[in-house]
Amino acid sequence: MSPKPAALKHVIVDGSNIATEGRSKPSLKQLNDAVMAFINDHPKAVITVIVDATFGHRIDPKEVTAFDKAVEHNELVTPPAGTVGRGDGFVLSIAEKVGASILSNDSYQEFHGQYEWLFDEGRLIGGKPVPNVGWVFVNRTPVRGEKSRRAIRESQPSSDKPGKGVAKVKVSAEAMKPMPVPKSLPPGATLPAKKIDNSKSVNDILPFLQFVEKNTVGSVVVGIVESYSSHGAYVTLGDVRGYVPLRLLGSPPPRSAREVMQLGESVTLEIVEIIAGRRSIDLVPTTKSVSEVASKSKKKAASAKKAAPAKKAVPAKKAAPVKKAASAKKSAPVKKAAPAKKATPIKKAVPVKKVASAKKSAPAKKAAPVKKAAPAKKAVAKKAATKTAPRRK
User: Per DSSP, what are the bridge partners of residue 282?
Assistant: First the structure.
């Protein structure tokens, strides 16, 4: 038997049970309200919230984003897949290990033979929301029934095996079954209209993109505290919503964000993480001012510019040498200009033909020399047989 805790040092919250109290399906908001109310009643207690493996499938789709965020930061704990005894066995094993009390309206009858300390005073606390009052918490004793009697009977030492006084712990067959995964929606529930990532997105895409365009991790912004949760607080940053987890509010972290910030309060915050997949922004309170961070970033930018060596001018590429003619791939030499052909000598102008003849007038033929008249043939005087008569005087 584990020792009885003194004055609620540690409380394990059976989240699935408390979130379903008075309802047909669990509500993350109801669980959050119950935890916050319990913290107010027991401010010194350490709180650990456990939910079963199907919790995220059964809550309202609008709460899935907050649920995923809480699980991611270990502010809500789910049992490993296939845990024996479902989520109840996981809750009881943790409570036994640290000697904690349990906040739950369940009696855990299947485990009465294994965890006798459940009947110790102060180990089991019940809670219920009362109209016009809020959550009320009281100590309670587990209810005994047929399941309880069977579990105790099965845990007793076996009489047919003498010498073994150690009780053999047995768990009912029902408790040994793995946690079922629901295959259909609860009665009356309907699926929301399909939207692109809306069930897992904290902010609308346009305001988110405008915000991250101006702010990065390390930037300082001013936000207004909007609401609390069992695992942190939400703040508004203009048109977007940010999240301040408890784990970043101190070491050790406070029991509630209420101890650090008040609703409606304007707080200076530093961006520590931007998760694009869910369009969420994680922040932490800081003493830095927006102007201080802005001036530092400007100085860093200026020093970075100075530190950066001036880039050497890229030398201009040398002009490719003119390739020599006849060598491989060398540029052909400028071909010598072919000697100009000798100009055809201009034909002497044909002298203008003299009028009256296309050609030079042929030189007048020399007048044929007048044939000399053949000298008169001397009359051949016939030799007269006689001499010519003498001239008469």
Answer: 243, 273
**Cβ contacts of residue 288 below 8 Å, gap of 6+?**
220, 268, 270
CA distances, 45 to each of 75, 111, 180 (Å): 15, 25, 32
Tens-digit pLDDT string for the chain (393 aa): 444 444 678 999 999 999 999 888 899 999 999 999 999 998 888 999 999 888 888 999 899 888 888 888 888 888 876 665 567 888 999 999 999 999 999 999 888 888 889 999 889 999 999 999 999 999 999 988 888 888 888 877 655 544 444 455 556 666 666 666 666 666 655 655 544 444 567 888 898 999 998 999 889 999 999 888 878 889 999 899 999 988 888 888 887 888 888 888 999 999 999 988 888 899 999 887 766 656 666 666 666 666 555 555 555 555 555 455 444 444 445 555 555 555 555 555 545 444 444 444 445 455 555 555 555 444 444 444 445 555 654
Please provide the CATH number assigned to the domain covering 198-303.
2.40.50.140
Using an 8 Å Cβ cutoff, are 142 and 109 in contact?
yes
CA distance 287 to 364: 136
CATH match of 10-176 with 3.40.50.11980: yes
Q: How many CB atoms lie within 10 A of CB 376?
A: 6
CA distances from 153 to 65, 85, 145, 318 (A): 45, 18, 12, 99
Residue closest to 230 by CA, chosen among 240, 245, 249, 242: 245
